[in-house]
Amino acid sequence: MKLSQYQWLLFDADETLFDFDAFSGLKHALSQYGVNFTEDDYAEYQKTNKALWDQYQAHEIDTNTLQRQRFHTWSQRLNVPATTLNANFLASMAEICQPLPGAHELLKSITPDVNIGIITNGLTGLQQGRLHNTGFDQYLDLLVISEVVGVGKPSPEIFEYAFERMGHPEKANVLMVGDNLHTDVIGGNRFGIDTCWYNRHQLPNETDIIPTLEVHSHEDFKRWLLS
User: Fold this and answer.
1) What EC numbers are recorded for this enzyme (predicted)?
2) d(CA 221, CA 175)
3) Beta strands in 56-137 (DSSP E)
């Protein structure tokens, strides 16, 4: 049984265990101010948000600045503090978050036999709320959030931080599972652990990043683990 090979399974969070629908979250958060948030509005927001995340990853700004500045335009339009808009957005994202098909069943079935951890690039308030609301927190032996560490995947520092908290297991006994080749898979590969690409949309791999395993559903992954 493949599962017996591993002491730890490390999962990504967004789009691996639950959805990340930022458009719906923003639409929900801004509707209380009478805003009909559109796809064009979302494209404008994402342009700013992505630039700020790039600055954050380069250690040029902190998370407070990121969260405040991404709502600067809407703060001016609505005459509402950016911090309030950001808090409403985080609350909306936690409220509308849905587990991906088979995720709960997978974790419930393997929890007695292996340690479960999450390594996620994100903000503490958002991820903790979503994990609690979806019930995934009940399965966790480890939660590592990039905001706390100061770096995100694929940086080896976040994996080193996780391994220290895990008690330094053998790398051969750890598997990283995630939907993103450029963060989850390459990060795990470079750190020297096995990787599983959770490719639920069955996208072609047009990179030179090769996972140990590719699955298209949590049911596929469960069957592989128990084989």
Assistant:
1) 3.1.3.5
2) 12
3) 115-120
Instruction: Identify whether residues 70 and 178 lie together within a single domain.
Output: no
Three-class secondary structure of residue 138 per DSSP: helix
For the segment 33-57, what is each residue's pLDDT rounded down to a tens digit? 999 999 999 999 999 999 998 888 7
The range of the structural domain enclosing residue 49 comes to 22-96
115, β-bridge pairs: 8
Tens digit of each residue's pLDDT (9 = 90 or more) over 91-124? 999 899 999 999 999 999 999 999 999 999 988 9
Active site residue 12: yes
The residue from 12, 14, 179, 194 that is catalytic is 12
| 150 or 116, greater pLDDT | 116
Q: Tell me the pairing of strands 8-11 and 174-178.
A: parallel
Angle between helices 82-96 and 22-31 (to 10 degrees): 120
pLDDT, tens digit, for every residue of 198-224? Answer: 999 999 999 999 999 999 999 999 999
Alpha-carbon distance values, 217 to 53, 131, 191, 199 (Å): 29, 20, 25, 7
Q: Residue 82 is encoded by which pair of tokens?
A: 């950016």
- Domain count within the chain: 2
What CATH number is associated with residue 50? 1.10.150
Backbone angles phi and psi of 186, in degrees to 5: -65, -35
Is the same domain home to 44 and 153? no
Indicate the burial class of 70 (C-beta count within 10 angstroms; 0-12, 13-18, 19 or more). buried
Residue type, 69: Q
